[in-house]
Specification:
There is one protein chain. By secondary structure, the chain is mainly α. It is built from eight helices and five strands.
Length: 177
């Protein structure tokens, strides 16, 4: 997820086990994301880091007419984290768009929600990102998909390629029954 990449740059995330009991972890102020363990304080650090960025994004929207999309937000976060351990830092540095149609699924969505009460008005335009990802597929000479897992992201990538009558190559890896 988006926030996991950023949070690990702010404070350590630990490798755990899928079989650890959630109840025991919560008593120790630890959150589990699959087999990753994230102390509660890391989320507080994430909020402290993110809120001024959301403030600035809102200001740019209101004063300069900046039209934010999930991919532009992710690029901004990659710029602001300024840490070579971040995937989004490298995407930003190399001008590689990262599309996340489910950007609000998780702590980042929670922070956007909290921010909307403190300073309402920030808008993320999902439509512009859908056009961008679909146009990348439509105008490509050839496309290939490597899909790890399933769900929303898989559907968006497959749908973008449907706009061009399918991908030339595809590899799907998942654990679904």
């Amino acid at each position: 997820g988006i926030e996991e990449d950023l949070i690990k740059c702010l404070a350590p995330t630990y490798l755990g086990d899928f079989n650890l009991k959630g109840e025991d972890l919560r008593k120790g102020a630890i959150n589990r994301i699959g087999n990753l363990l994230v102390p509660n304080n890391n989320y507080c650090m994430f909020e402290d880091w993110l809120m001024p960025i959301l403030d600035q994004m809102l200001l740019e929207q209101n004063t300069m007419g900046m039209k934010w999309t999930p991919s532009k937000m992710i690029a901004r976060l990659g710029k602001e984290i300024n840490n070579p351990e971040s995937v989004y830092y490298w995407a930003y540095k190399n001008n590689i768009p990262v599309f996340s149609p489910a950007i609000t699924d998780g702590s980042l969505g929670d922070m956007i929600y909290f921010h909307s009460y403190k300073k309402p008005g920030l808008v993320l335009d999902i439509v512009e990102d859908i056009r961008l990802v679909n146009c990348q597929a439509v105008f490509a000479k050839r496309t290939g998909l490597i899909i790890l897992g399933g769900g929303l992201i898989k559907h968006h990538i497959a749908n973008a390629n449907l706009m061009r009558n399918g991908a030339n190559y595809a590899v799907y890896v998942n654990t679904a029954q």
